[in-house]
Amino acid sequence: IMDPYVPPEGDARLTSLSRDGLKQQMQKLRQTAASQLAYGEFGEKGGICGGGREKFVVGEKRKGICGKRGGICVFNKQKLHSLVTERCYPDMVRGNRYRTIRWGFVESLEPPRVVHVRCESVLSRGNLYGQVTVRMHSRQTLAIYDRFGRLMYGGEEIPKDVLEYVVFERYLVNPYGTWRMHGKIIPEWAPPKDPIIKTVMIPGPAPDPSQERE
């Protein structure tokens, strides 16, 4: 991720402003100035400059990716590769084998918005890649079951407020390129996730060696 975005401390939460929060506010001002310079590069390559309209389009596309990710139990490798980058793909599928994932989008608490823009050349000048960080505040449901159908994490009937900073990437040289999910930024002040409930197979009764078995 190019120059990762530093989310302000306590974003979407009522917390007091600490010394670290003041430092992050100064960092945010510097990042905003760099984002404005990157907008010019995007405009030349047909990126996201469009009177603010493209910002909402990028956010709506993230919802579409979430919808596809919600159906990851019906695995479609080719479709997932078209929605996420090569860096993001292993993170999406790691640990999902033999598990059932039930994900649902309930509602959007705030409109998605672009908070960070970067544009850099890779390997050679003119080989431009663009990255945008989209802030998304929504309500979702997530339940993960093991291969025996037992609940390991979350619950389908318990919606939770989720604040995400999702990074999208696009190869700007290709005029037909699309924005793909590249990763997520997890701030240091984010609350820890609920632990995953470990499940094991219940052993059956010990066989009696004196009895015949088929």
UniProtKB/TrEMBL annotation:
<keyword id="KW-0687">Ribonucleoprotein</keyword>
<dbReference type="InterPro" id="IPR007379">
    <property type="entry name" value="Tim44-like_dom"/>
</dbReference>
<feature type="domain" description="Tim44-like">
    <location>
        <begin position="35"/>
        <end position="186"/>
    </location>
</feature>
<dbReference type="GO" id="GO:0005840">
    <property type="term" value="C:ribosome"/>
</dbReference>
<keyword id="KW-0809">Transit peptide</keyword>
<dbReference type="GO" id="GO:1990904">
    <property type="term" value="C:ribonucleoprotein complex"/>
</dbReference>
<dbReference type="InterPro" id="IPR051975">
    <property type="entry name" value="mtLSU_mL45"/>
</dbReference>
<comment type="function">
    <text>Component of the mitochondrial large ribosomal subunit (mt-LSU). Within the mitochondrial ribosomes, required to direct the nascent polypeptide toward the tunnel exit and position the exit at a distance from the membrane surface.</text>
</comment>
<protein>
    <recommendedName>
        <fullName>Large ribosomal subunit protein mL45</fullName>
    </recommendedName>
</protein>
<dbReference type="GO" id="GO:0005739">
    <property type="term" value="C:mitochondrion"/>
</dbReference>
<dbReference type="Pfam" id="PF04280">
    <property type="entry name" value="Tim44"/>
</dbReference>
<keyword id="KW-0496">Mitochondrion</keyword>
<keyword id="KW-0689">Ribosomal protein</keyword>
<dbReference type="InterPro" id="IPR032710">
    <property type="entry name" value="NTF2-like_dom_sf"/>
</dbReference>
<comment type="similarity">
    <text>Belongs to the mitochondrion-specific ribosomal protein mL45 family.</text>
</comment>
